[in-house]
User: Fold this.
Amino acid sequence: MPDIPERKTASADLPPLVILTGPTAVGKTSLSIRLAGELGGEIISADSVQVYRRMDIGSAKILPDEMQGIPHHLIDILEPTESFDAFRFRELAKEKAAQIHARGKLPIVVGGTGFYIQALLRDIHFSQQETDEAYRQSLWEMAERDGAQVLHEMLRKADPESADAIPAENIKRVIRALEYHHTTGQPISVHNREESLRPAAYRACYFVLSDVRERLYERIDRRVDEMMEAGLEGEVRGLLEEGVTPEMTSMQAIGYKEMVPVIRGAYTAEEAAYRIKRNTRHFAKRQLTWFRREGDVIWVPKDRYGYDEDAILRELIRQVKETLCS
RNA sequence: AGAUCCUUGGUGCAAUGGCAGCAUGGCAGUCUCCAAAACUGCAGGUGUGAGUUCGACUCUCACAGGAUCUG
Assistant:
C-alpha cells in the first residue's frame, strides 16, 4: 500500500488512540463497552448531542448501568443552553486523552460526529483569535437584509479561491470564510490547505462499524419507535420549560427539532416520528459519505462477520494489537 | 345499476393544443470552530387502446382503476 509513508513512520512515537465510529444506530455503544473492557480503555464520546445534560432519550445516550464501570468522558458536560463546537471538542478531548494515557489506559473515541474525530485526530489548529462573534452577527444580519449574493461577492473580493469553492447559498460557510479573513487577514483556503497537510496527532486505529443500508434503516426505525415510547416528548417539553429555545444548538439535533411542533400543536407525534426517522436516515447517509472520504479507516461491515459481535470484537482487538503494539 | 368527477416520477401537486415543471422521498457528493449543522448534484413520469390534429398531459371514443351522489 503506497500510503503516505512519512505519516506512518512519524507515528511511531505518537500516543495510541482507538476510534470506534459509524453511522447512527449501527451498534457502536455495546461494542465499545466490550472493547474498552478487553483493552483496558476509557471512552471519550465524540457526539455533538450527548455532551448535553438531560438530552438522554433523543440522543440515545448510554445509561450509567450500561457503562459497566468503564469511565466515560465528554458526556453530560454542558447545559442545553450552552453552545459547543469542534474547537471546544478538540481541546477537551485532547486533554482527556492525555489524562487517560497518564493513567496508563487506552483512550477509545466512540461516537458518530466525524468532524469532531477529524479535528482531534488531525490536530486541526483552530485558534480563539480567529473568531469574532460581533462581526459574525453583523454578517448574518447583512445576509438577511441584502441576500446571500452580496455576502458571496464580498468573499470573492477578499478570498476568490474560497468564493469558488463555497456556493453562495451556503451562508454559514461563506460567513466563516469572511470571518476568518477579517480576523487574520489571510484567506481561509490557505489555512485549510496548510492544516490538511498536518500529520496525525495520534497513532490511531480508526474503525468504522457499518451494515447494509436496509438493516441500518430498520434499526433506525425501531430505535425511533423506542424513543417515542420512552417519553421523548416529555423530555423535549421539559427542556422547553426550563428555557431552552428551538434556536439553540442543542435543540437543532434530530429528535428534538421535530418534537417542538408537536408540543406546540402544529402536528402529531406520529408525524414527528415519521420525520425523525427520515432525518435520521439522511444523517446516517451523510455520515457514511464522510467516513468514505476519510483515508486510513478500517471498515467493519457487520454483515461480513455474520452479525456475530464476538467475532467483530476479536477482529478489532487483533487489529489494535497489530497496529498499536508493533 | 345509473349519473358526475378524477387518473401526470415512489408520494402530493402543476402545465392556452406547442421544450412536461414543483415539492417531497430515493441515490450520490461537499465539508478544517453551530457538523444530529449548512449546502450541492443525479436519476425517475403523462393508466391502457384507438381517433381528431402539422403537433395531444390537454380535445373525442372505448376499456381499466378510483371518488362522490342517486337507487
In short: Residues 11-124+198-324 of chain A form a domain with the Rossmann fold fold (CATH 3.40.50.300).
